[in-house]
Amino acid sequence: MSLAPARVFAALNAVRPPDQASPVMGKAVVIGGSVAGLLAARVLSDHADSVVIIERDDLHDTGHRPGVPQGTQLHALLPGGFLQLERLFPGFREEALAQGAIEAPPAARRNYLDGRLKVVVPDDADSLAGSRPLLEGLIRQQVLRLPNVKTVRARATGLVLDGAVTTGVRCDVGGASGVESGDLVVDAMGRSSRLSEWLEQAGWERPVTRRMTVHLNYATALFRRREANPEFTVVLALNSPKVSSDVAGAAFFAIEDGRWMAMMAGYGDNRPGHTAEDFVLRLREQFPPEFGEVAGSEMLGDVQTYRHADSRRRDFHPLARFPAGLVSVGDAVASFNPVYGQGITAAALHAACLSTYLRSNPDPGVPARRFFALQKVVVDAAWSLSTSADLALPHVHGPYPRGYRFSSWVSGQIIDATVTDVGIARRFNDVVSMREHPGTLARPGVILGALRANLRAR
After folding, report:
1. Which residue, of 54, 209, 232, 458, has the fewest CB within 10 Å?
2. Confidence label for 1 from pLDDT (cuts 50, 70 and 90)
3. Which whole-number Å values give the CA distances from 202 to 160, 167, 186, 222, 424, in the listed order?
4. Torsional class of 100: left (φ above 0), alpha (ψ -120 to 50), beta (otherwise)
């Protein structure tokens, strides 16, 4: 199925929940209470009489969820994802602010590239700052309020198939086996999804898994925030490989409970900030003055570290044989280098794909190829953004796509132009926040504009 990527992106970013529910199925089952699973459940609540979320963690617990090992690290809610959440959950902004999230309009965000302060895009979309438990907890609260959504605390152990149709999920509930039947099953089990093994065991094709090794090392620390309403609530400083060999960048956000959350990242054997002393020293000496001010505050608790070995994607769209009544979303399909902050936004776009698919009145006895075709556009976009940047890292050695050297040069010109040119920065931000397709940056007018901006800057 051939789809024009830019048009698909525009359509998905315009998707809104239907004015009233229009059930096309009796029950849907979502495996996994991840953000992707929760957003899928939200969409399904408009199209199913009932939705069941199967999750090993207690989804009614408002704290850190054990199934999110990176939950202690800094998370970015990109403007594109924020817009999607506001559409899915009217009043999301107000409730988030009431629970401690911090507004991050364009004027309150600062971005540095290789030590150079980038221009502000005054008409850019707003965003929110907050810890991962707060942001995920807000989404979870909104979903669990829906009258036709319930949770089952259990471990999913396999699929139930009737011929070529998925009819449910096998579960282990406190040592007892059971089955949760459904008209549609959604795999939202994350990077460790076992769906590929289940399909292979049942005699179906196993999707090809692609990986790009990145060996990203994260370190995050909390600091006491003195200002109740700081001028800048989100500050990022990224380093290109040509400038720094050991620190990929750092960032700090104002989050709930009067705290700063600061992050530092490196690749390969470089683990910047893995101790409190190293973290504070680097913030003071290797980054703009704002970072030193945060480092001068009281550190709360220990430095939390996390390692992300690789980006990976499972390609369901080309499978010649696939059961009906089954789809996969979120990190179970593709997970990217988290330094680009696209996880929640990508999950929201997967939910938009599901909404678009269900509104087409699909045949429940036929594989969801229309859904996977839409989702492929989203995955390809995020994958190309992430991996093209990762390929510039000195320790990453391909595979390089055709024309990589030229496309890398063009990307470098555009990124350099975002430092000084508001128009180019606006287009770039729209793509990075997944409001526009990356292909829009390859238009001749954008490339020429970037070249002119860089000539002026010199």
Report:
1. 458
2. very low
3. 9, 13, 17, 47, 50
4. left
Question: 203-234, pLDDT tens digit by residue?
Answer: 999 999 998 888 889 999 999 999 999 999 99
Do the beta carbons of residue 24 and residue 183 sit within 8 Å?
Answer: no
Concatenated DSSP letters of 378-446: HHHHHHHHHHHHHTTSTT---PPPTTHHHHHHHHHHHHHHTTT-HHHHHHHHHHHTTSS-GGGGGSHHH
Element (DSSP H or E) covering residue 170 = strand 165-173
If we measure between CA atoms, which residue out of 406, 404, 453 comes closest to residue 428?
Answer: 453
Separation of alpha carbons 10 and 15, rounded Å: 9
DSSP letter for each residue of 257-321: TTEEEEEEEEETT--TT-SHHHHHHHHHHHS-HHHHHHHTSPEEEEEEEEEEEEEEEEE-TT-S-
**pLDDT tens by residue, 339-375:** 777 889 999 999 999 999 999 999 999 999 999 999 9
| pLDDT tens profile 328-344 | 999 999 998 887 778 89
Number of Cβ within 10 Å of residue 68's Cβ equals 18
What's the rounded Cα separation, in Å, for the pair 378 and 355? 14
Cα–Cα distance, 432 to 440 (Å, whole number)? 11
